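TODO from last week: model SAM-dependent methyltransferase Erg6/SMT-type domain-containing protein.
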Amino acid sequence: QVKVLEYVGLAPEGSQRVSSFLEKAAEGLVEGGKKEIFTPMYFFVVRKPLSE
């Protein structure tokens, strides 16, 4: 478990909270897929051109 890794210092503090949040989000995405209400989102990574 993440809590044990956090306790012994192998994971940073707050890792358990993030893990719980991501697990809950994954459950919601699965449920949305089963109900066919999930709409994928487009994600673009852009970089501002360097000025000369």
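Done. The mean pLDDT is 88.
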